[in-house]
Specification:
Pfam families: Glutaredoxin, GRXCR1-2_C. By secondary structure, the protein is α+β, with helices and mostly antiparallel strands. 48% of the residues lie in helices and 14% in strands. A hairpin with a 2-residue loop joins strand 4 and strand 5.
Length: 223
């Protein structure tokens, strides 16, 4: 009888120990879960910002390294933009087709660019010649006052993936439409109505001083 009681006491002690052990394991697991969740929450709060900052810095560094490969040209208004010299005249087929190629690539990359059509304003043509030091034909592309090149160079850069890197960071080409010129970048001269000539006091025709040779004035909001 005494042996039976001793065995019963041992079983009760064992059951109590097991119960305490289970509770201890459950408590430890709960604390561990809370610790893990807390660490995850901290990572969720800090990691995205850190990664974004790191990616932006890396992107800027890559852009600066890539731009250092090109010659610097001080394009008016091109310090932090893309400037594209082109022509809308189809007199020379190759020139016109080259301009279309570059325009297509720029629009395909969804970037905003300053278009300077030399056929609409001779000042653009003279500006392009002055920048490059020689009489050249469009298209010519500049990014952040760096001369990227003509159609052949731009197409080659697009094929090796460098053009995308050069154009990253610029605003989308899907920007709002200009209320004045509807993104045509020129307006008909208000003084001569596009004739580029006006009647003087002596009733003789003279050159209009308000517009260019095509009777157009630059849109103040776009150029």
């Amino acid at each position: 009888m005494k042996d039976v009681k001793e065995r019963m006491v041992k079983k009760l002690k064992l059951i109590t120990s097991l119960g305490n052990l289970k509770q201890a394991i459950a408590l430890h697991k709960s604390n561990l879960d809370r610790t893990i969740f807390h660490q995850i929450d901290e990572k969720e709060c800090l990691t995205p910002t850190t990664l974004e900052s790191s990616e932006e810095q890396q992107l800027q560094q890559n852009l600066e390294e890539l731009l250092s490969e090109f010659k610097e040209k001080c394009v008016a208004g091109g310090e932090d933009s893309v400037v594209f010299y082109t022509t809308s005249l189809q007199g020379v087929r190759k020139t016109f087709e080259d301009c279309r190629k570059v325009r297509f690539l720029l629009e395909n990359h969804n970037v905003s660019f300053r278009e300077r059509d030399v056929s609409l304003d001779c000042e653009f043509k003279e500006e392009m010649w002055r920048l490059l030091g020689v009489k050249v034909t469009p298209p010519k592309l500049f990014v952040k006052c760096k001369y990227i090149g003509g159609a052949d160079e731009v197409v080659a850069l697009n094929e090796n993936g460098k053009l995308k890197m050069l154009l990253e960071g610029f605003s989308s080409a899907k920007a709002r439409q200009c209320e004045w010129c509807e993104n045509e970048r020129f307006l008909i001269c208000w003084k001569c109505n596009g004739r580029s000539r006006v009647v003087a006091e002596d009733e003789m025709w003279k050159r209009c001083i308000e517009c260019n040779e095509n009777g157009l004035v630059k849109c103040a909001l776009c150029i």
